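Reproducibility note. Readers wishing to regenerate the assembly model reported in the main text can use the exact inputs given here. Chain order matters: entities are listed in the order in which they were concatenated for prediction.
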Amino acid sequence: MKGYLCFTDGLTFEGAASNQWESDIQGEIVFFTGMTGYQEVLTDPSYKGQIVVFTYPLIGNYGINEDDAESGEIQVKGVVMASCSDSTSHYKATTSLKDYLNDHNIPYLTEIDTREIAKTIRTGGTRQACLSNHTAPSFVPTGRGQAYQAIQSEIESHGDGMIHIGLIDFGWKKSILSSLISRNVRVTIIPFTNIDHIWNLQLNAVVLSNGPGDPKDLMGELPGIKKVLEQYPSFGICMGHQIIALAYGADTMKLPFGHRGANHPVKDEWTGKVFLSSQNHSYVVDERSLSSTPLKVRFTNVNDGSVEGLVHADKPIMSAQFHPEAHPGPEDAEWLFDTFFEELVMKKGETVYG
Amino acid sequence: MGEKVLVIGSGPIIIGQAAEFDYSGTQGCLALREMGYEVVLVNDNPASIMTDYTVADIVYCEPLTVESITAVIQKEKPSSLLAGLGGQTALNLAVQLEEKGVLDKYGVQLLGTSVSSIQKGEDRELFRELMRDLGEPVPQSEVITSLSEGLNFVNRVGYPVISRPAYTLGGRGGGFVHDEGELKEKIQNGLKASPIGQVILEKSIAGFKEIEYEIMRDHKGTCISVCNMENFDPVGVHTGDSIVVAPSQTLTDQEYQMLRSASFNVVSALDVVGGCNVQLALDPSSDQYYVIEVNPRVSRSSALASKATGYPIAKLSAKLAVGCTLDELLNPLTGHTYASFEPALDYVVVKFPRWPFDKFTEADRNLGTTMRATGEAMAIDRTLEAAFQKAVQSLDISVPSIEEPWAHLVKATDLRYFAILDLLRQGVSVQEIHLHTKVDPFFLDAMLNIVDVQKEIKRSTLENLSEPLLRKAKRYGFTDASIAELMESTEEKVKQLRNTYKLQRNYKMVDTCAAEFEASTNYVYSTFAGENEIKPLEADKKALIIGAGPIRIGQGVEFDYSAVQAIQSLRKSGWTTIMVNNNPETVSTDYETADRLYFEPIHKESVQAIAEHEDVDLIFTSFGGQTALNVGNELKDTNLPLAGVSMDTISDLEDRDRFYAALDSMQVPRIKGGTCYSKNEAWKISDDLSFPLLCRPSYVIGGQGMVKVESESSLNEALNQTENRHYPIIIDQFVTGKEIEVDLVADGAHVFIPGIMEHIEPAGVHSGDSMAVFPSEVSEEVTGLVHQYAKKIVEFFRYVGPMNIQFLWTEEQLYVLEVNPRSSRTVPVISKVSGTSLIDLAVQVMTHEEQSILSHLTPPTLSHVAVKYPLFSYHALPELDHKLGANMKSTGEGMCIGSTREEALGKVFSHLPSPYENFEAYFIDGVESGIPNSSDSFDTWVKSDKAAVYFNDQDTKEAKARRIQALKNGLSVFSESTTFQALLESLNSENIEPIPLPGGKTKGVLTP
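Running the prediction on these inputs yields the following C-alpha cells for the assembly.
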C-alpha cells in the first residue's frame, strides 16, 4: 500500500505504508544518522511524539530484544526507513522490528528515499510532518510542553547504596539510571512536576534527565529547580543541561536542524582531548547568554562550536548536552559519571543535608 | 624545501600486500609534501603511482633490504622515517633499522607509532601480555618455538588449533591444524617463515563473527573509529579472503559500542599515532568477544574503510605522524567537517575478493587463514542485495558451474557464495545453510531475496514482466543483461521496457555524514533505490576514463598507474575528468584523483549510463587493461565517443586471423599458425605446422589457459580438455628465440619508441613472468627492424594511442608475435626509466591536441639500465609449481636500476648468497652445472637451515614436487636456466650505490 510523508509546505515523499492508517499521523520530524541503535531511539522518551527518519538504509537487522529499550514503550509517533528487516537472526532477539512496530500500532513507511528526506529536514529545519495514505493531509496546530507528556507520574526508587541520587525526570532514559546504579547508588526518580518532593528525600545529589521538546516550555518550573541546584551537587544531561542554563539566566535557542546521531566530536576545553558522543537535541544553550551567569563552558562541539557542556564557577554543578550514558552511541564520555561522583564524594558533608 | 622524510613503500605486489599500499603510500607522500616536507621514497615497485615524481621528490627503485635502505639514508640524510604506509614490509624494515642502530647512528627519527608499539602489536607474546594487562580477552594460545611446545599446548586445549607464524604477510605459512601430522608440518614451516622464529598456536574460534574496526588516534590521545566492518564469512577465513560488509549489519548498538570501546582500549595502550586496524571475534550467541589481531599501520582494511566512508585514513595518518591532531584537521572530502567526526554511512558496502583460481585450475580452492586473493572489488548501494550483486559484477569473472555445491560450504572455497545461491535456488533453507556455514542468516536472507527475484523473473516474459517486479530487480542490482538472460530476451529490450516504466538509475553521493551536513563531494555511486542528487559536471570538455577493476594476475596495479596518469595528463590540458572503477585498493578510486569518481561495476550498462548522464565528450578505454578494452568493444554500437582508433581496428589487431592477414600484406614476418573454431579445425591447422605448438584461447588476460604441446598425443589431450565455450583457440608454431618488446605511442602516422626491452628468459615464458632488461642490448640491425615493423603496423591501421608490440628474434629473423592495442604492463617501467611519460603523450595524441608532437620527438638518452623482475606469491599458493611457462603466474613486478646490466641484476639478487662463498646454500638439480652446490641429498638439504637457492628446470613430476617442496620451505626456486644464468652474472657486481629514478624535480644527492 502506498504511503506518504508530507511536509507542511506541501512537499511529499512516496513510500510503502505499513498499514491503512485510520488517520494522519502528525509529529515533529527528525532524523537519526547512527547505523545501529534503532531500538534505543524508538524507546527514548526524548523522541516522544516525533516521527523519526533513519538515514541508514537497513534497519531492523538484529530484531528487538529485551535489554535495549530505553523505556517501557515506543515513544516515537512514526518511523521512516528505507527498508525494515523481517530478520530476527540475533540470539537476543525476541521479535522482529516489523512485528514490534505492528504489534504496538506504530505506523511506518519503507521504500522511501531517507537521504532526500534528511536533506529536506536539514535545509528546511525541524518541523511538523505527517504520515498519511494520501498526499494532502491537514495539519493541526501543535501543543507545547512535550516534556509534560514524557514524564512518569510515580516517584520510584532503584538500586542500593550509601549515596542517594535524585533523578529529576523530564523523560528519563533507562541508560542514565543504569549508569548511576552501576556505581552502587540508590536512585529515586522524581518527576519535575513534583520537584518539591525532593526536600523529603535526604539526597546527596541530583541528576537532571534528558527530555523532549523545547526547554523553555518549562520556564514556570525554573525557580523550584534552581532552589534544588543551589543546594545539591547536580549533573544535567541533554535537556537537564539546558534547564540548568535557563535556571541560571542563560538562554537557549533552536538549532536549524538538531544534532542526532552517534558520531559528534566534542572537545573538552580543560584537557584539549576530543571524544565522540551520542547526541539528540534540537535546542542548544546560546553561548553569548552565558557571560552574565556563573556558568562556564567546558565542552564544545568540534564541528559547529556550539556549547556541549557547562560547569558552575564555584558550585559542584556540571552538565552535558550530549549523552554520556550512550545507548545508542559511543561510550567515550561515560567517565563523566565518574567525575561527577568524585566531585560528590569530595563535597559531601559541605553542601548536603543530613 | 623543508625537512626530509624518508618513506618506505611496500614493494612489488604479492598476495597479502597489494595495491592498497600504493594508494596509502601515495596519499601519505602527498600529505607530507602538502605540509612542506621533502619526500624521499624507496620502493622497488615500478608499476606504482607512488614511485612517480608527481608524488615524491626523490624516488629510489632499490631493493627493500636493510643494507639498501641504510645506503639511501647515508646518501640522503633524512631527518625522519615514515614506515607506517608501506605495509608489513616497511614496518619490519623499520624495526630492523632501529634494532641495528641505523636510525640512531644517522639521527633519523621514526614518525608515527614507535618501534616498541609496533612490536607489541606484532609480536604475539608481547601482544598477549598487553591484552592480559588491559583485561581484553584473547583466544587461548601460546607462542612456541619448537614442535614439542606445540604438542604440549594441543594436549591441553585439543584440536583444531590455528597456527600463525609471527611477523608474516597475509598470514603466510599459517592455517588450521586438525591432527598431529598437520601440526608437525605447520610448525616446521611456520618457524621457518617467521623472521623471529616464533609460531603462535591458538585455540580455534571458527564460527565466531569476525569484526574489524579502523581506528585513528592522534598524539594527544583522541581516538575515533572511522568504520567498522563485518565479515560475511565467520572466523576461519582470512579477512582478505572474506566477503566483507561495511558497516557491521548484525551487531546491536550494545555490541557495536562494546567492540569499539575495546578497540580504543587496545589502540590507546599501544600509543598508536595514525591509523590502526583491530580485528575482533564475537560469539554469535553471547557477548563474549576476543581481540584477534592489531595492525598498527595502514592496511588493506584501512584502504577499504577509506573508500567505504570517504575518510582518507592514510592521508590523515601521515599528518598525525608529524604532529597534527584530529580536531584541527578537516576532512578533505567534505571540506568542512573535522577529521574527528566519525563517518556515518547511509548506504551499504560490500567487498568481494578476487582469487587467482581461474588461472590456477590446479590450485587448492579451500580458504583458510592464509590469504589467497590477489585483489578485490567493492560495491556501494542502498540495498544489501544490490551491493552483493554489484560487487560480483565487478569481479569480471564467469562463475564456473558448480557440480557439488555442498562441497564448497563446510570447508569454504572461493565459490562458497555461488554455491549458497545454487542451494537456495534448489530450495534449501536459510537455516540449514546457516547450520553448515555459520554465515549469519541476515546475509543469507538477502541472498534468498536475490534468488526469489531471479525465480520470479524466470517465470516471466518480456510481455508480462510487471513494473513492481522489474523495479524490485533493479533495486536488487540485477543488470538488464542478467534479467534478459533469465527471460531469454535481449538486454536492449529489457532496457526499453525499463524506460517505459521510467525506472532510471540514479546517482548519490558519498559524504561521510549521511546528509547531516551540506556537502558537495565528487564521490558518487548509483542506485535504483532513491532519487538522483548528482547533476552532470559543468565543463567544456569532459573525459570518462574506464579503470581496470580488481587486481588479478595479468592485470595489476600498472593499469591503475595508466589510468591515473591519463587523468593527470587530461587535467593538465584543461579536461574535466571522470573516473569509473570498482577497486577499493587503488589511487584511481581516491576521490581526489579525478574531478568525479563513479564507484561502479565496469560493464556496458553501468558505463553507458554514466557516459550518458554526464554527456561526456570522450571515453578512454586504453588505460584500464583488457577490462576497459572489452567494455569499449561492447559500447561500439552506442554512438558514444570512444577515444583512439575504432573498436573495429582494435578487433583487427586482436583477432589473430585478421592480424596475421594484415602482417602478411605488409610483409612483416610472423609466426605460423591460426585460429580454430573447432577441434577439427585445430587438427587441420596443426597439420601445416611442426611440433612443438602453442595453444591458447583468444581474448584473454595474461595467457590464461595457454599450453605448449610437444606431440600429437599431448595436442589430443589439450584439445580434449578444451570445452566448447573456450573456442576459438589459437594454435601457433612454437619458435624459440629472444623475446623483445616495445611500448610506443602513435598518432596514425608517426611512432615514438622510447626504447626496446629485452627478456632474459626465452620466448615461451610469458612476458609478465620474464625478467627484462631496459634498454636492450640488441644490435642496430634488430633495432632498425623493430622500428620499421612498428611503423608499418601503425601506418597500416592508422593507429592512434599507446601500443605494445612483442617480437621474437631467432638470430635470423625478427617475428611479430602480438600486439596489445592499449597501454601495457611495461608502460610504467619504460616511462620511469626513460623519464618520458608515454601516457601523457598518448593522451595528447588521442585528444588531437598536439597533432604533430610525435614527429619532432627524439628518443631519450638512457643513462642507466633497469631490470624488471616478476614476483610470485608462493607463500599464498604453496601447492603450485611455479615453473615458468606460457601461463602467467606472477602477481607483481619489481625493478632495480644500475649503471650496467650486471649492477642492476646485482641489486635484484642482492638478497641471495653466492654459491662461491656459500655452496651449501645452493642445490642444482638435474644438470651438471659446474657451480659449487650442496652434496647432501635433496631431502636433507631442503630442510636444512643453510638452504637458500634451488635450481631445477626439468618438466618431470619429481622436479615439480621438489620445486613445490623447496618453495614451501621458503627457498628461492629457479626453474629456467636463463634466469639462473642472470643470477650468476649478478654475482660479479659489488656496487649497491643507490640511484634515484631520472626526472625528479630535485635531483637528489648526486654522487660523483
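We highlight two features of this model. The longest helix of chain A spans residues 335-347. Helices of chain A lie at 38-43, 97-103, 114-124, 146-150, 174-181, 222-231, 239-247, 335-347.
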